[in-house]
Every structure is written in structure tokens, then in C-alpha cells.
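Researcher: Let's do a round of design. I'm pasting the C-alpha cells now; please hold your answer until I've finished.
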């Protein structure tokens, strides 16, 4: 231990003397370890944290098959109830959940919100071995006809509505679609339904037997309850899976209204596969493997630097060996130096990862759209710390053992010879350094190509969103379908809401729409130009319309007067929707420039007629607006720029979007909710946010992937640049005498710079060719797996390769310039 402590102090002193080497080596490894730790933190958040609430080990999902129809799927509600009442002996626990969540309105005095409800059976929580965060979860007694209606809420709802207080449990009434439910418990933290998957969105859980009481038109609650029940079963032991399958088959194929045993298939498969754990886990390991390329590149860079340092210290090693030191002692000395570098890099990488995850966590608290919300908690936990330490240990072993073994293999008499070039100056050493730099460049090419894919996909996705300025806009959704509103009452409510919003402070303009023009709310439909035909007007008169027949696909949005001015999509010709355009007046429409150009090329669209595919309403075009998005798709007939606006008064829909223009869009979010509550406190306003936030949320998954992959690619490029610089700097130091002789014989500085740059180009081209080869193989593999992974655009390939070549040449300039400034007299002094 005394000798070990002495070697450790000596290694620390050696690193202290070579501060430049130490800083660059630690920084390089820290980038590799930090980048890997950030990606592991993301995988940790998606794979481990959401799943930990639900214990799926040994749990299976029942799949029902029909040989005649070649179909497979879950049980129906009736089939599950039969199985539940006749539980096979081999099954220990059983529970079920509906495959589909239903949107409901939950309300307490002064607050209402639309959330997703998950319908579960009384045995669901026990089957998944869930533990309540507060109160209790649903039990079989709750799932019986006539039982008192109770509800369990998510951690998010509990904290936002009740500040995490235990007092309301068992005493507070929550109305769900107007029906009273008693709050009895809080789900485990991080659990959002779908049996614990990371893409669950549920905020309330209701017993299946009680769920039909909250059915209102538009929710499909009765359909959800009767069909598509995902059934979880836990066999009594690991060896009883086959017995459980047989028992379930017996129950479902015997008795009254039983399934035909000749055509019925029963299979149990892992619950982890159903909830996405297996799929997310495999994806996570793929991400970590890609991020591992960064660590490999960092290790290759540090190994190159250590090889060069070992070559410079060859004489020291030879003296130690000549004085009696063993190869093991030399090996241990160099390994300790590498271990110290790796330890400092692991600490620095962890600090970098904490900072990066904090920034990413603030930028992407959740990735969401209208169909799902993925909650990503990037806060480092013990797994992340252990991963960082493990990455540092792997780097220490991978780099330290090789360099220590190489350094301890010095031949003393060769190293002490005055003409010896050293270990690292041999042709074999040069080839090794060339291979290591090529490895770094290859990793940079592969990762930057992946980053290029996501950047182009993100840009393409954002191109399909609104072109007008959404910064001053606030949007919110009101869905009266979830309430007991008939059409007349609904029209009155929306008129009152629009009037109240327009009176709010700082509101410049406001309008209603049943979709966001150009966004994902607008519904594409087939649009026909009306040709030679007779049309029956609302007043019963018949009139003949002539025109040139064309057909396109276009989004249609029902709007109130003033929407184009509100969102900044001006009316270029004709007029806007007017207050006089009512259900009793002739049907009219506004069309975007793209629609006008496609349907009536070279003609005036004002006064022309069009008709949506099946609604039978012939509409007269009264105005032309600017395109809502840029028409950058291959087929103009299905471009998102194709838009038709119709009066909301002529096409009532119970779900409307409130659009407000204001200088303070974020401040209006709560004001819109208050305006709605003032009219009816039970009507929930949801998805209320500045329009920029709503639009970006649709591209958030691609945006997040672009940022993460882009960061990974840039880190790889940085490491490759440091590698090129380090190798060329070392080569220049070895060729000092050669350059001195050349300059003494008349070589100009430019010629010396060109020699060094030629070496840099040689290094880069080897890495670029290898990178292109590996990327092409990866592209073919992922295409064979039907996974869009690599971009085929020649511009992406050219951009990435030129970027790496340009940055590499810049890195080569400093050692090349240093070589051109060598004084021949000093270089030749020891010749």
C-alpha cells in the first residue's frame, strides 16, 4: 500500500506537470462520459421510472384468437366477467383495464378540467401490485353494480388541485361528467395509466361497473366498457403458465354462450411487452449504444494522446527498467495515471450531465400532442450516478490497460539510443494513431448523419404548420359534447363566451374556430368544384350552376367573423365571413390562395362554387385568404396550404377553439378559463396555452430528438477535431528536424504548411470513407427493419462530410503554422 500510495502521488505530480495534456484529456473524456450520461438519463426516465410503480414480473396479458377470422385481440367485458367469476385454479390474481381511455370532465367547486379517465376492474391494482401514494386504490367491492361511486386520481391532479393534502381523501366529492364521485385515493407517483407505460395519460380511475353512469354523447364510455378489455393474470407460480392458459380456455369455451372450442385460441404473453416496457427498453439500449460511439471516440482520442505521451516518456521508462523496475510496476504507474484522468473526467462528465439535463428538463417537461403525453423526468438519480462512474471505469480500463501495456513494453537499449524515434514514432505506431483518428471521424459521420435526419424531419414538420405569426395568439379548447348542451344552447354559450373574451383587458381581437387553420385541428376533406348541375337552395328554388370540374383535398374550418384578422391571415380578395352568414342564408366559403389557384386557374374565384365530398352543401366563394402554411409538399393537391373557411353558424360543432390576439398571450390563459366559468362553472377549458406552445408541442418529439442527436453529433465532431489536432501536433513535434532541414534547404513556410495539411486530409479521408461505409450499412439495416433512420438526401450527406472536412482542416492549421515557424538553427542544433 505504501508503494501504491507513492505511485499514486507520482502519477498526480506527472499530470500536474503536464497541465495542457491533462486538461485536454479530462475534457475529452468528460464530453464522452457526460454525453452518454445525458442519454442514459433520458432512457432512465422513459424505461425505469414509469415502470417502477407497476410490477409486471411474472404478469401476463390474455390474448384471444379466432382461427376462422384469423383475428387476435383482447377479451370483451362480458368475457372478462365470466373469467373473473370462474377464476382458474392456476391463476393467483386477475384484473383488467379498458384499452381505450375516455375523455371526461372532472370538476370541483370553482375548477373544471378535461382529463382522460381509465376504466379498470376491482382487481386491477392488485394484479399490478400497485401501492397507493395516499388513501387507497380500487378494490373488488368498488366494482359491483350499486356500489358507492369512488374515484382514484393521479399524483398530478392531487397536487395541483389539493396541494398534496390528505384531508380531502374520503370526504371530497369530485364530479365526473356531472356525476358525484368520492375521492378515495391517489395513484403512485409517476403512474399515469396504461398499466404503467411512459405514454399513459390517465388522471382518474373509475370502477368498470360504475363507468356507464358517466356516459355522455361523444365519450363512447359504454363502448369502451363493453369492448377491448386488457386482462392481466398472475399465475400462482412460474411453472403454471400453461395450466393458466388451459384453465382460461376451459372457462371461455364452456357453459352458456361459450366460445367455440374448435376455433378459439388462448395465449398468454408478457405484460411488459403490452405496456411497451420491452419495446421501450430495447429502444433505450439502442440509444445508449449509439451514444456509446461518443465514448468510444473519446477513448480513442485519449488513447492517442497517451500513446504520444508514452513515446515521449520512453527514455524515462527505459531508465526505470535499467535500474531494476519490473514491467508490472511500470504498467501500474501508467494505469494509475489513466485512472486519475478517468476519475476526474467522470466527475466533470457528471457535472456536465446534470447541467445538460436541467436545461433539457426545463425545455421539455413533457412531450405531447392530442393523442398522448410522454412525461420525462430527467432528474439524476442513483442509476445515473452509477452509470457515470461505470462509464469512467470502462474508459479507464479500455484506455489505461492498452496504453500501460504498450508503455511497459519498451526495450531499454532501443529507447536509450540517441537516434531512437521512440515507441510511438514507428510505422506501426503511426498506423495505430491513424486508425484511432479514423475511428473518431467515423463516429462523427454516423452521429451527425443521424442528427441531420432529425433536423430535416423537424424542419419539414414545422414547414407544415402556420406561416403567419403566432406569437401574439392564445388558444383554448371548449368541448360542449362532454356536457348536456343541445345545439341551440351550445350556440348561445359560444356567443356569450366570445363576447366575454373580447371584453377582457389587453385583448385586441378574438374569434372562434372548430380547428386551427393549417394546424392539426383542421380536418382534410375532398373538395369538388361544382360543374353543370342543378342545385336546390334552402328556400326551395332550383338554380343551375356551371363551372369547370376539379377535385382536391383541403382542410376545412368553421370560423366566426374576424378570424383571418385575428390570426394574421389576411383576406386578399373579396370579403370575410360576416355576421349575416347564418344557417338560414346561402352557404358561403373563403378559400386560400392555393385552393383558388388549383380549382380555378386563371379565373376569378369570387362567385365560384364548391362542395365538400358528401355534405351536399354547395358554397359560394366570397373571399380569398393568404395561405396558412408554406406549400412545400410534393403533391399540391394534398398540400396543407389548401384551406377552406366556412361560417361556424352554418356548420355547428360542439367543440370550438378560442383564438385571441393580445400583446400578453400567456397572461390570458387563466382569464379565458375564468370567462368560461363565469358562464357555466362546469364547462372545462382545456389545452389553453399560447399558440406557439401548442404548435411546438406537435413537433416536440422530433424537436427533442433533433436537439439530443444534434448535441451528440456536435460532441463527436468536437472529439474528432481534438483527435486530429492532437495527432498532427505530435507528428509536428517528431518531424521538427525534418522541417528544419527542409527550411534550411530553401523550403517556404507555405510548403511546410501544405505537408502538414496533406497529413490532415489523409487522416480525414480515411475516417470519412469509413464513416460513409458504416453509415450506408446502418441505413440499409434500419430500412430493412422499416425504421426511418438515415436521410437519403444528397444535401445531408454533402453537408455532413464538408462540415467534418472543414473543421478538421481548421484543427490542422495550428500545428501546421507552428511547423512553418520552426527555426532551422534550433531544429538542427542536435542533429
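Researcher: That's everything. Go ahead.
Model: Designed sequence:
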Amino acid at each position: 500500500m505504501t508503494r501504491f500510495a507513492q505511485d499514486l502521488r507520482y502519477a498526480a505530480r506527472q499530470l500536474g506537470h503536464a497541465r495542457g495534456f491533462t486538461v485536454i484529456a479530462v475534457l475529452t473524456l468528460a464530453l464522452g462520459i457526460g454525453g452518454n450520461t445525458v442519454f442514459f438519463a433520458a432512457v432512465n426516465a422513459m424505461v425505469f421510472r414509469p415502470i417502477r410503480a407497476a410490477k409486471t414480473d411474472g404478469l401476463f396479458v390474455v390474448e384471444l384468437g379466432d382461427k376462422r377470422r384469423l383475428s387476435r385481440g383482447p377479451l370483451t367485458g362480458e368475457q372478462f366477467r365470466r373469467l373473473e367469476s370462474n377464476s382458474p385454479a392456476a391463476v393467483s390474481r386477475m384484473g383488467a383495464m379498458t384499452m381505450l381511455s375516455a375523455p371526461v370532465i372532472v370538476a370541483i367547486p370553482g375548477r373544471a378540467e378535461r382529463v382522460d379517465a381509465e376504466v379498470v376492474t376491482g382487481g386491477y391494482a392488485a394484479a399490478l401490485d400497485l401501492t397507493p401514494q395516499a388513501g387507497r386504490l380500487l378494490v373488488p367491492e368498488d366494482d359491483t353494480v350499486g356500489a358507492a361511486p369512488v374515484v382514484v386520481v393521479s399524483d398530478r391532479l392531487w397536487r395541483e388541485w389539493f396541494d398534496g393534502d390528505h384531508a380531502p381523501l374520503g370526504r371530497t366529492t369530485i364530479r365526473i361528467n356531472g356525476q358525484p364521485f368520492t375521492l378515495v385515493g391517489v395513484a403512485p407517483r409517476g403512474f399515469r395509466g396504461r398499466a404503467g407505460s411512459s405514454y399513459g395519460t390517465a388522471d382518474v380511475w373509475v370502477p368498470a361497473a360504475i363507468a356507464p353512469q358517466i356516459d355522455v354523447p361523444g365519450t363512447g364510455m359504454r363502448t369502451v366498457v363493453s369492448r377491448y378489455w386488457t386482462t392481466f393474470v398472475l399465475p400462482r407460480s412460474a411453472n403454471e403458465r400453461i395450466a393458466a392458459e388451459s384453465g382460461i380456455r376451459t372457462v371461455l369455451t364452456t357453459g352458456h354462450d361459450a366460445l367455440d372450442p374448435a376455433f378459439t385460441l388462448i395465449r398468454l404473453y408478457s405484460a411488459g411487452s403490452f405496456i411497451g416496457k420491452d419495446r421501450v427498453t430495447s429502444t433505450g439500449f439502442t440509444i445508449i449504444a449509439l451514444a456509446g460511439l461518443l465514448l468510444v471516440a473519446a477513448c480513442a482520442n485519449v488513447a492517442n494522446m497517451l500513446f504520444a505521451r508514452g513515446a515521449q516518456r520512453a527514455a524515462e521508462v527505459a531508465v526505470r527498467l535499467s535500474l531494476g523496475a519490473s514491467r508490472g510496476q511500470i504498467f501500474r504507474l501508467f494505469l494509475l495515471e489513466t485512472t486519475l484522468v478517468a476519475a476526474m473526467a467522470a466527475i466533470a462528465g457528471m457535472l456536465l450531465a446534470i447541467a445538460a439535463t436541467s436545461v433539457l428538463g426545463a425545455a421539455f417537461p413533457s412531450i405531447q400532442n392530442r393523442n398522448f403525453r410522454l412525461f420525462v423526468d430527467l432528474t439524476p438519480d442513483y442509476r445515473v450516478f452509477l452509470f457515470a462512474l461505470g462509464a469512467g471505469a470502462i474508459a479507464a480500463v479500455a484506455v489505461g490497460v492498452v496504453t500501460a501495456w504498450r508503455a511497459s513494453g519498451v526495450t531499454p537499449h532501443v529507447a536509450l539510443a540517441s537516434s531512437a524515434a521512440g515507441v510511438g514514432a514507428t510505422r506501426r505506431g503511426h498506423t495505430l494513431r491513424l486508425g484511432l483518428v479514423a475511428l473518431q471521424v467515423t463516429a462523427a459521420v454516423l452521429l451527425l448523419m443521424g442528427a441531420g435526419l432529425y433536423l430535416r424531419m423537424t424542419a419539414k414538420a414545422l414547414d407544415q404548420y402556420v406561416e403567419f405569426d403566432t406569437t401574439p395568439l392564445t388558444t383554448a379548447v371548449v368541448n360542449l359534447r362532454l356536457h348536456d348542451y343541445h345545439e341551440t344552447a351550445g350556440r348561445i354559450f359560444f356567443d356569450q363566451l366570445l363576447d366575454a373574451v373580447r371584453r377582457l383587458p389587453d385583448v385586441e381581437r378574438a374569434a372562434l374556430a372548430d380547428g386551427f387553420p393549417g394546424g392539426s385541428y383542421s380536418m382534410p376533406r375532398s373538395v369538388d368544384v361544382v360543374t353543370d348541375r342543378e342545385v336546390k337552395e334552402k328556400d326551395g328554388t332550383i338554380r343551375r350552376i356551371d363551372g369547370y370540374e376539379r377535385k382536391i383535398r383541403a382542410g376545412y374550418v368553421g370560423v366566426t367573423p374576424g378570424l383571418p384578422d385575428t390570426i394574421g391571415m389576411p383576406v386578399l380578395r373579396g370579403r370575410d365571413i360576416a355576421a349575416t352568414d347564418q344557417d338560414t342564408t346561402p352557404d358561403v366559403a373563403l378559400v386560400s390562395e392555393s385552393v383558388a389557384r388549383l380549382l380555378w386557374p386563371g379565373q376569378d374565384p369570387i362567385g365560384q362554387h364548391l362542395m365538400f365530398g358528401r355534405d351536399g352543401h354547395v358554397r359560394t366563394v366570397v373571399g380569398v385568404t393568404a395561405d396558412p402554411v408554406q406549400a412545400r409538399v410534393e403533391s399540391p393537391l394534398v398540400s396543407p396550404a389548401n384551406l377552406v373557411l366556412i361560417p361556424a353558424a352554418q356548420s355547428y360543432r360542439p367543440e370550438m377553439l378560442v383564438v385571441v390576439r393580445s400583446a400578453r398571450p400567456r397572461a390570458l390563459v387563466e382569464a379565458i378559463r375564468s370567462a368560461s366559468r363565469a358562464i357555466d362553472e362546469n364547462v372545462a377549458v382545456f389545452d389553453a396555452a399560447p399558440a406557439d406552445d401548442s404548435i411546438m408541442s406537435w413537433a416536440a418529439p422530433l424537436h427533442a430528438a433533433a436537439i439530443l442527436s444534434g448535441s451528440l453529433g456536435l460532441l463527436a465532431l468536437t472529439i474528432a477535431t481534438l483527435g486530429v489536432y492532437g495527432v498532427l501536433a505530435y507528428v509536428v513535434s517528431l518531424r521538427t528536424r525534418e522541417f528544419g532541414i527542409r527550411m534550411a534547404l530553401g523550403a517556404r513556410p507555405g510548403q511546410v504548411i501544405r505537408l502538414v495539411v496533406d497529413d490532415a486530409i489523409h487522416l480525414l479521408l480515411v475516417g470519412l470513407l469509413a464513416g460513409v461505409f458504416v453509415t450506408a450499412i446502418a441505413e440499409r439495416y434500419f430500412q430493412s427493419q422499416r425504421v426511418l433512420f438515415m436521410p437519403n438526401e444528397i444535401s445531408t450527406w454533402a453537408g455532413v462530410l464538408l462540415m467534418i472536412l472543414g473543421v478538421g482542416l481548421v484543427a490542422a492549421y495550428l500545428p501546421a503554422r507552428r511547423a512553418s515557424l520552426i527555426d532551422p538553427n534550433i531544429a538542427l542544433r542536435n542533429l
